[in-house]
Input
Amino acid sequence: MTGLTWRLLDPDESAIEVDLGEPSLITPEWAWGGATGDGVDVCVVDGGIEPGHPLVGPVASSHAVVKRDGKHEVEEVEAADSFGHGTACAGIVRQIAPACRIHSVRVLGERGGGTGRALLAGLEWAIRQRFKVINMSLSTARPEFNQALRELVDEAYFAGSVIVASAHNSQIESFPWRFSSVISVGSHTSADPDRILYNPNPPVEFFARGQAVPVAGLRGSVSRNSGNSFATPHVAGRCALIVGKHPGLTVFQLKTVLYLTAANVRGGRTDESHHGSDGERGGGLERLGRGGH
Amino acid sequence: MAEAATEDSELLTSIVRVARSIFGAAASSVFLFDAEADELVFEAVSGEGEGFLVGTRFPADRGIAGWVITTGQAMSATELTTSQVFARDLAESTGYVPDSIMAAPIVHRMAPIGVLQVLDPHPQSRYSVADLDLLAMFANQAALSLHILLRNRAARAGLRREGAEYDTLAKIAALLADMDDEQRGRGVALIESLHGMLAGMAR
Output
C-alpha cells in the first residue's frame, strides 16, 4: 500500500504540481464557462435525499433498492433520507451545478440496505437509466463484489455515464473508486468549492473540498461535514457542468478535461493570439466528442 | 466469569477514555453493532452520559453512527446545534445534544463490528480531516481489542450452555495463562490426561 494517496493534507500543493510543458487548448472557460448543468441528469446513489431542503432544491425522482423474495429490486419511493448523507451530497451537487436534475436511488438504510448486493443493484439501475453523472460517495470493501462491480462500471464507462466515486477515508482498498473507469475523489483541505486538483500519484485521481464543507442536513438544517464523501459531489457537479456544455464527450474525454483544467495542472502562458478566444478552444475535443462512441 | 466480564468492560472504558483525551472531547462512546437486530448498542461511554447510556440501543439505519457502521467510512459533522440536527431526536434521547461529532468504524477483517464516536472535540479537531484520520487509526487499533472481547463473550456464552456453569474451566484457563512456561507445560499435560479420561467416559 506504500505510496497510495487517499487525501491531500498538506496545504503546500507544489509536490503535486503538473507542468504540461505547453499551453493547453482546454481551459476552464471553454470547459464549463457559463454552464449551469442544465439538461444533465445526476443520480446520487446513497441513503436517499430529503426533499424540500433549500440547498438541494427539486429532486427529480426517488427510488430505493428493496429486497423481495430474496432478490434486490429497485422501486419508486417517496423521497426520504434517514442518515442525512445523501441529502448532504445532493446539496453540494446543486451548489456546483444549480440547473441539473438530481435523482436519488437509496442503497443504504431502511433495514436491509447497505449490503454490497444493494449497492450493486442500485448502481446497476442507475447505469441502465443512462444518468449522465452518477455520484457515489460510497464503496464496499468486500472482495466478492469486485468482479460484478468492475463489469458494471465498465458498462457505464462505455455507455457514457460517468461514475464519480469517493475514495475510502482510511487507507483501505474498497471499490468501485479503485477502478480506472470511474473518477475517484479524495479530500483536500482548502475551503474553495471550485478547487479541483489532479493527483499525479493515483489511484485517487482528483482531490476536492472535503474538510468542513457546509452541507444540507435533515429537516432543513445546515452543518459542516468532513470526509471524502463530501469532496466527491464537488467533482460530480463539475462533471455535470462540463457535459451540460459539451454533451458529446465520452467518459475518457471528460476525465481528460478534468485533468487539463485541474488547478494544479499548468501549461505555461497561453498565447491568446495563437489560440484565439476561449470559445474557439477545445475545438479538437469537441469534434472528437461529436463523433464519439 | 464475572471477573472476565469486568476486564472486558475495563478494556472498552480505557478505549473511550483515551479517545476522549486525545481529542479533548466532552464525551466518547463505543457502540457495538448487533447485526441481527440491526442496532447499535452503547457499550462504553466516557464523559457525558457515562452513568446511564451503557446498554442503550438505537437503530443502525439512522444518524452519523448509523451511516458509519453501514458504510464502514469515517466522517465528522459540526455546527450541529446551530440548526436542526442530524438525527437530533436520537441525540436528545441520550440526554446530550452535541455540536460536533466525529465517528469512525471499528472494522475487523473487513467486517464493521462497531463505531468509535467522539462528541464535541477540541475546536481545532472539529473541522480537521487530519484528525478524522487519527480517529480512524485509533479505531483500527481498538478493533483488535473489540474482536477479542466479542470472542471472549461468545466463549463465555458457550460455557453457560443449558444453565450449567463452567466457571472452573475459565478459572483453569486463567491460571494456565499466569503460569511460567514450565508450570504451564505440566498443567497442560494434566489437562490432556483429564481430557482423555472424560473422552473415555463419553464413549
Observations:
- Residues 269-284, 287-293 of chain A have pLDDT under 50 and may be disordered.
- DSSP finds eight helices and 13 strands in chain A.
- Residues 13-290 of chain A form a domain with the Rossmann fold fold (CATH 3.40.50.200).
